[in-house]
Write a structure and sequence with these properties.
It contains five helices and four strands. Strands 2-3-1-4 form a four-stranded antiparallel sheet. Helix 2 packs across helix 3. With 159 residues, it is of the alpha+beta class. 16% of the residues are buried. The protein is 35% helix and 19% strand. The two termini are 22 Å apart. Strand 2 and strand 3 form a beta hairpin.
Amino acid sequence: MVASKNVRAQGPVDPLDEVDARIVELLRENARMPNSRLAELVGIAQSTCITRVRALEQRGVITGYSAHTSPAALGLSLQALISVSIKSGARHSIALFGDEIRGLTEVVQLFFLGGSEDFVIHVATRDSDHLREFVVSNLSAHPSVAATRTSIVFEHVVN
């Protein structure tokens, strides 16, 4: 199947029929579900099911499959959301900034926003010292960054 990748929002896609919607729902619950079980739950032939899954991938409805990990289990017990505002004179480099930040190991997710802030960065760090060093070295010292605001995550629930 398709590997997980960085996903940018795509334009609208055609509405899903009931079968495709059910396939997407089941794969969101368990992306490792074998095609045979998926086909059984949806009530279609296995060959039809795999054809539909591949079509959903090609249409950009399914953009990838990934393993969700526990940052705490990896020694990254402190998570934070960092809002970043880019300097008005640095608007031309906003895509470059996003690409730079996305590549940092502490970054879990990156959101490019419309509104008063340009980005929200979800990071996982070892502790508050690691978080401070991330902000100071990668954001506050960055020539494109006007301001940051850091919020500590107390609990992160993934649906």
